[in-house]
Amino acid sequence: MLHTIVDLSVRDVRFPTSLEQHGSDAMHTDPDYSAAYVVIETDCGLKGFGLTFTVGRGTEIVVCAVKALAALVVGKSLQGIVSDFRGFYRLLTSDGQLRWLGPEKGVIQLATAAVLNAVWDLWARAEGKPLWKLLTDMDPRQIISCIDFRYITDALTEEEALDILMKAKEGKQLREKEMLKEGYPAYTTSCAWLNYSDQRLEQLCTDALKSGWTKFKVKVGADLEDDIRRCRLIRQMIGPKNTLMIDANQRWDVAEAISWVSSLAEFKPLWIEEPTSPDDILGHAAISKALAPLGIGVASGEQCHNRVMFKQFLQASALQFVQIDSCRLGSVNENLAVLLMAHKFQVPVCPHAGGVGLCELVQHLILFDYICVSGSLSNRMCEYVDHLHEHFTSPVVIHDAHYMPPKDPGYSCEMLESSVQRHQYPEGDVWKQNTKK
Ligand SMILES: C[C@H](O)[C@@H](O)CC(=O)C(=O)O
Ligand SMILES: [Mg+2]
């Protein structure tokens, strides 16, 4: 069956998370977790669902960009797309007029991710498999044919990428079995958003420890005294053996980052995340070098907008943890490129998932990474945030701080229609009742 795409619709869906300060950090002080939510329909009735994560008011701009891409998608068949997925990726990212908005970054790249996430969801549904299984069952050559290698061949050639996938075939079945039994290790960010009170932090941390969590991320960066107090509190609660990470969400200059994080070194964070501008590759390299003697790595990626940026971060030894994002990069296609580059440079991947739907999506990618690329769990874990899963038709399943592999066909992007209607901006009931717009 060809599955010709006959319609692409997009909606602005927002959740008022800022009311409770969920998701708050040193730069995003009042985030309303939101999504540009895409549905593609085919002539045979099969649908694909996709989204990209945004924060509040920015969503309407992403929605416009998705609408601008729609004409490139409607009329194409799924079979035609996946028989030359690299070509289709380029069609979207290299349109002669839209490319000027990026290229391959910012709003247009978020929109590309939303559209392509829906196409991957459609493909996985058409095959009757969850996306991670579609990927792990795929012939390595077909995986490679989905990736646009333009601009990265100086770091990773097609032949090298194929070689990585071929070598990782050994032990693949055992790793898949292991994942189905044990799940993929996760860490939680949900205890310590920046604007949570100490009392709330303590309560959430107590609950999380009881539920088996052993790795915790704390937001920092607005006020050093607050950071010292909060890090001390959480380190005391989790003890010396559990893992602590800190996240500044781009708050500092380079020298400021080094001195601020040095002041928090006594709490033994595994990494400092986004210490400075997400575009400052050499700045990250300088911070990495300065913090290495303290045993603190640098993590980044949630605002790393394409494979070219990741390539340079890796080439410059500017990151010790790669944080892929299922909606910031150009969907699965571009994430595959980054997973393979990270493997070549031997830098562990610890995906970003702080946002609505990101946990649902990125679990598929990290399962593929373990089963088919890295074959390692050393220094690796996937972020988890405990919000808004109830709005998805196939929400994540966490057991004992591990992501259990999804079983339903697709990319886990579909939201409950009732949730979409209630949260659609501005006409949904949630927003009609909410005075904060
Ligand atoms: C605005 C988001 O909540 C952001 O703080 C998420 C993030 O940085 C993370 O999960 O990491
Ligand atoms: Mg972060």
From TrEMBL:
Keyword Magnesium among record annotations: yes
EC code: 4.2.1.68
Mandelate racemase/muconate lactonizing enzyme C-terminal domain boundaries: 198-294
GO biological process: amino acid catabolic process; carbohydrate catabolic process
Cofactor(s) for this UniProt protein: Mg(2+)
Gene3D superfamilies for this protein: Enolase-like C-terminal domain, Enolase-like, N-terminal domain
Keywords per UniProt: Lyase, Magnesium, Metal-binding
GO MF annotations in UniProt: L-fuconate dehydratase activity; magnesium ion binding
The organism's taxonomic lineage, starting at the top: Eukaryota, Metazoa, Chordata, Craniata, Vertebrata
UniProt-recorded name of the protein: Mitochondrial enolase superfamily member 1
Leading EC class: lyase
Domain of life from the UniProt record: Eukaryota
Pfam family, one: MR_MLE_C
Catalytic activity: L-fuconate = 2-dehydro-3-deoxy-L-fuconate + H2O
Family per record: Belongs to the mandelate racemase/muconate lactonizing enzyme family. ENOSF1 subfamily.
